[in-house]
Amino acid sequence: MIDYTSLYAQMSVTPLAGWLGELPAQVSVALAEGQHGRLPEWDAVLSNLPAVAPSQINLQDGVIVGQSDELSPDLFARMESQLRQLHPWRKGPFDLFGLHIDTEWRSDWKWDRLKGGIADLNGRLVLDVGCGNGYHCWRMAGAGAKLVIGLDPFLLYVAQYQAIRHFVGDDVPAYVLPLGIEALPDSLAAFDTVFSMGVLYHRRSPLDHLLTLREALRPGGELVLETLIIEGEGGQVLVPEGRYAKMRNVWFIPTVATLLAWLRKCGFVEEKVLDVTPTTVQEQRPTEWMSFNSLPDFLDKEDARQTVEGYPAPVRAVVVAKRP
Asked: Residue 225 forms beta bridges with which residues?
């Protein structure tokens, strides 16, 4: 499905070179025949995308590739038909030759909330854990990162990333690997910035997750963490019984004070809050590119301040911290 040769070449001249002893084999296993029954279908989609060199690639204001007059009506229809076969599109939006992929999440809003408060990404090695289809990886590259590596084991998201790369081309140093965080070598200590957004509450051991993120950072490197939070004091944590907002795998939702204490407990310093924002049905909702249930279906119909299970409705915080 994907050739990572150019990634490996770029890694070889960075502090990430040590990972190359095992990374190609990890990727090969993840993409092996039989890992997902729809892999042949997704390969066919990628092979049938029209070949066109865009006149422009704008990763600063969004993920905007080409202009509407660069594809004939037939090629435009072919592109749209192929991309729709990669439904559901959850992270975005994307604009490809005038085609607007209106994704479930307005991921650009999250980027706008955090981009002004993090360390300048120019020239940095960046890791994005649980990156989905790589929307934020493209934005990180657009912010000047030297190399961006996203991790996500869900192969549909990897196929969506490759569909965007088909049009972006090979010159932008942003890659999505079909791997989870468990693939990271121990004590890597190589990345300048590590992002973990929308992952922490899915981990059975949030402190272990934070420790793994810390070990991926070089000394002085920055963690950018976005996660669900609840109101309350230090030491308070919501542990949902059953589902939270219809999600099965939500384990721990801390208060902001608890989250900052977790960071200190795991050896981070200079921790601070960049943003706390309730998730609205304008930011997460069903679209024709993601037609399944979404946030409007996860909230109480009579009181949108709580989930259908009776828990506080989703509020997300963005915090940063450094590895000393």
From this structure: 196, 319
